[in-house]
Amino acid sequence: MTQVCIAAYVYGVVQGVGFRYSTQHQATALGLSGYARNLDDGSVEVVACGEQPQVDKLVEWLKNGGPRSARVERVLVEPRGTADYQGFSIRY
User: Fold this and answer.
1) pLDDT score, position 50
2) Which entry of 37, 38, 64, 68 is annotated as an active-site residue?
3) Is 23 left (phi over 0), alpha (psi -120 to 50) or beta?
4) What's the whole-model pTM score?
5) Consecutive 10-residue averages of pLDDT for the chain (92 residues)
6) Which is deepest, 22, 46, 73, 88, by most CB within 10 Å?
7) What does the alpha-carbon distance between residue 12 and residue 23 come to, in Å, rounded to a whole number?
8) Acylphosphatase-like domain location, by residue (predicted)?
9) Catalytic-residue membership of 64
10) Could you confirm whether 20 is annotated as catalytic?
């Protein structure tokens, strides 16, 4: 299968609630690479690369609210060019 990469921007109460760590755990379990990082506007950017069905599962998880402590209001997803990330990291 072909590798795809997406960038998802997650808005709502998503900082200070373990969102990046939960996303890292979920993405790693799905075999994805990329990163999650907080943005200055209070949102979280998630870049995920891997097989299309696995990336779709992560996006669905994000849209369904992510971790229980988060309150996701909306998720914007856009395609990204493929990149060679080593694992799934949390960026600061």
Assistant:
1) 97
2) 38
3) alpha
4) 0.96
5) 92 96 98 98 98 98 95 97 92 92
6) 46
7) 15
8) 5-92
9) no
10) yes
